[in-house]
Amino acid sequence: MVTAVAVAVSACNVDLPWEGPEIPDGVPPGPGVQQPFIDIHGPGRTANLMKTWATPISEATGIPLISLEAYGNAAEIQRQQYPECGIAWTTIAGIGGVESKHGTHHEAKVLPNGDVTPPIRGPQLDGTNGNWEIKDTDNGVIDGDKEYDRAVGPFQFIPETWKRFGVDANGDGKADPDNIDDASLSAARYLCVSSGGDMTTPQGWEKAVLTYNNSMDYVLRVRNHANAYSVNVRY
Fold this sequence. Notes:
Blueprint: E1 7-9, E2 14-16, H1 51-61, H2 65-81, H3 89-100, E3 109-110, E4 116-117, H4 159-165, H5 180-194, H6 202-212, H7 216-230
Antiparallel strand pairs: 1-2, 3-4
């Protein structure tokens, strides 16, 4: 089992054992509390309809409320439009946690409309420090770099992938990788396509996450985050 970090009591320098719920280590990760049915075709930011569901989970897990609303919205859109995929909000949250601390990397903030500010940018993909080498593919329009590509936004899309999978999910008429609603739904769709349409099996889930980042260490990190969130535990 994945175990949570013990709580240190500094006054007496004693580590107390974890007394919360047992965190599973299965694949696919647990689905957590089911997000509610909403009208995904309604006007404006449909993720706002997730607030009542998201508030207690946000308080328990530490996931920012706006980010959690975005994850629930993305999972519900996929559930209604592509039920064969079976992606759960916990997996979307797991990737959001690993990629950008749910849009708060380097003290970024998630605004009420889902925009992440300041924008999150990865390093130049110039072939150094273990990174791929990807020369500029978007003339700097998406990532602001005309020499090499950079991963962008809270779900760290490279420009070519964003151009293929990016969608509008907050109702403002544009697909923006720096908006956590848009990025969450785009990531969910990417995962469903890369899994072959079934993330309810261990093979399908692992295949999808490996396609997102081809590293077993990454797969385990996402699994651990998602399973913790499935039982309302901070990770």
